[in-house]
Fold this protein.
Amino acid sequence: LGSSRSYTGYDPTVFEKNTGLSSYNLSLNAAPFSLQQIKLERYLANNKAPKVIVQNVDLTHFQKPKNILVPVQFLPFLGNKALSNDLAAFDREFRLRKWVPLYKYNTFKTEFRLGLQSFFGDDISILKSKKGYAPKDRIFKADLHNLKRIQNHVRDSTGFMRNNEYVEETFRRIKNREDKDQAIFMVWAPEIEVGRELATQVSDPLKEKLSRFAEQEKNVFFLDYSADPIANDTINFYDTFHLNRKGATLFSEKVSKKITKELGKQAIQG
C-alpha cells in the first residue's frame, strides 16, 4: 500500500519470490493515507484480508488531501456506490461525474478517445502495470516541485506534528484491525540525500513516533530505508522521490528479505 512511491517502487514478483506469499501492489498514484484507505476498504469488502500488509510511509503519506489529483484512475469504477460516495466526500466534482456520464471524462480527452476505441474492440491499456506495479525506465531528473513542498512542511514542522490527525488515524486503524496476527510493516523507502536532508527537521520526529508505536504493538514493524545505500546513487531513481526499475528491484529485494526474516522470528516466538 502507498502512493506513487510504492506504485513504482515495490515489485510484487520479488516479494513473492522471497516471502513465498502471493503479493499485489494496491498502491494509489498521487494519494495520501486517507485515499489509500478508500481503495483498501473496497478491496476488503470483496476479498479475504491479507496475512501481511506492507505500508509505505513518508511525509506526503500523512498529508490532508485537498482534492483527488489523478481522478481518471477512478472513472471506470463509479458504478460502485460505496466508492462513488467516498470519492464525492473528497472532491465535489465526483458528484457530477456520478450522475452525468459525459462529464466523467471532462478534461480527459485522451482517455475518452481511448475508451471509445476500447469499446469498439481495440485492445488498449493505459496503465502499463503488472500486479499493480508500474516500473519506470527513466534516467534521473530533479523534482523541484516536491522539494518546494518539503520546504513548506519544514517551515511549520511543529505544527505538522502537532496537528497531523492522519498519524493518529493510521495508528488507530492498525490497532483496531480485526486480525491481530496480521503483520503490518510500515516502510520508509530510500530517499536521495537532498530531499532527505531538507526534511530532517520534520521527518526525524515522525520516524521516532512511528518507531515507538511499532515497538508497542504486536506484529507491527517500522523499517526505515530512507538512508539505505540505494539512496546514494541517482542511477536508482527517475526523480528526487521515486525509484526507477533498477532501484525498485534492489529495494524490493532488500525489504522483502527483511520481512521474511521478521516473519520467521515471529513464527519461532509464536
